[in-house]
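Entry type: protein chain
Record version: 2
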Amino acid sequence: MRNKLIAVQLWEENDARNPEVDFNGAWSVLARLGVPYRFGGRTIDGQVEYLVLNPASGEVVASGRGVTSAQAMCRAALTARARSAGALVQVTH
């Protein structure tokens, strides 16, 4: 996932950390979107969910789920970036 984040300019190639496993790195990834985001809770199957919000309306525009919070944050950021580029995709593994 690190390479995908680099490709969409949500992570710097020279940063050796892996934001998918580094909680502080994952926060940084979400912050680079420049829009509100929040913890969405846990799904029925126990995954963590993060939500990206429309800054004007507060409406959920993207979400990401993962086994860890860091993984869910990175997936939410990738989904939001893809949607802002006009692609409607859900990021998985």
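Comment: The chain has one domain: 2-84.
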